Amino acid sequence: MKIVAVEPIGISAERAEQIKQDLSAKGHEFVWYPDRKEDENTLAERMKEAEVVMISNIPLSANVLSQCPKLQFLDVAFTGLDHIDLAYCQAHNIKVKNASGYATEAVAELTVGLMIDVLRKITFLDGSIRQGGTRGAFLGRELRGKTVGVVGTGAIGIRTIQLLQAFGCNVIAWSRTQKPEVMAMGVSYVRLDDLMRSSDIITLHVPLTTETKHLISKELLVECKPTAVLVNTARGNVVDMDALAECLYSGKIAGAGIDVYEKEPPLPSEHPLLKASNCVLVPHVGYATREAFDDRIDIILRNLSE
């Protein structure tokens, strides 16, 4: 079986060589590309003879997939699958499996980090001190005692709840599926509009589907407290970004911490959040830790034998 990793997926050259030897001993051919190329022509060229493809979050369209007649399995080194034409895969019997769980800790930690950054204005103050500034009359806000609304109680949402409770937060939640283990943690499930109205901080942990696109709409954002903070480490299109920017510009909400966007960075210069006040922006790094990448490699290798 020919197995092709079309991008580095966090594997070092030394680890790739070891994987190649291990798979060769089992009768497989392993090809690893040390550079990331997202254009469709390059992807199709790299994948065309593969029976198994390892890939992370590079978009895979039907156009690329149709040029891979031998493809049987997509081993996705990522949690979300919305970048892959799953309808094509289903119609052509291409199995798709993700690396579920590899970045749970990493994303949850960044989520809390963004909350603290926005509340304490760490990024803003770093810029100020580098320009000769002082504290002046600045006062930040603490995470302790805040009501945090968690939207989506999958693995990352649950881990985020655990971290927030350690900080002394009151946590409420909304999810399409209400879980007894979450309620056992002392978390109450509420309606989404009530969550938006009641929360000091709203954090998003739902996948992107047709039902969740722009789930956080203008109508819901204007329901927030003027002191509220929105954090999104889920998927960019879960939020109406134009509406969020408008609420930040007008002061209808106090701040935001954003890791995910409508498309992968770099952002276009006209993106509405780039000039929004009290908005901490990072380039989709929630999953990107050394520990998470090491776990991810183990998971995708395990997927090959399942």
Descriptive overview:
- This protein is an alpha/beta fold.
- The protein folds into two domains: 2-102 and 289-304, 3-Layer(aba) Sandwich (Rossmann fold), CATH 3.40.50.720; 104-281, NAD(P)-binding Rossmann-like Domain (Rossmann fold, 3-Layer(aba) Sandwich).
- 36% of the residues lie in helices and 15% in strands.
- The chain is built from twelve helices and twelve strands.
- The protein has helices at 13-25, 40-47, 62-65, 86-91, 104-120, 122-130, 155-166, 180-183, 192-198, 218-221, 241-250, 290-304, and strands spanning 2-5, 29-32, 52-55, 73-76, 95-97, 147-151, 170-174, 188-189, 201-204, 229-232, 255-258, 279-281.
- The strands form two sheets. It has a seven-stranded parallel β-sheet with strand order 8-7-6-9-10-11-12, with helices on both faces. A five-stranded parallel β-sheet has the order 2-1-3-4-5.
- Helix 11 (241-250) links the parallel strand 10 (229-232) and strand 11 (255-258).
- The longest helix is centred in the middle third of the chain and has 17 residues, at 104-120.
- The protein starts with a strand and ends with a helix.
Keywords:
306 residues; alpha/beta; Rossmann fold; 2 domains; five-stranded parallel sheet; 36% helix
Assign the CATH class of the largest domain.
Alpha Beta
How far is the N terminus from the C terminus? 15 Å
Output the structural class. Answer: alpha/beta
- Architecture of the largest domain in CATH? 3-Layer(aba) Sandwich
Shape call: elongated
Give the mean pLDDT. 96
> What is the helix fraction of residues, given as a range?
25-40%
Assembly type of the chains comes to single chain
CATH topology grouping of the largest domain: Rossmann fold
| H-E order | EHEHEHEHEHHEHEHEHEHEHEEH
Radius of gyration, taken over Cα atoms and rounded to an integer in Å: 21 Å
Strand order of the largest sheet: 8-7-6-9-10-11-12
Helix count, per DSSP?
12
Strand content: 15-25%
Question: How many domains, in number, for the residues?
Answer: 2
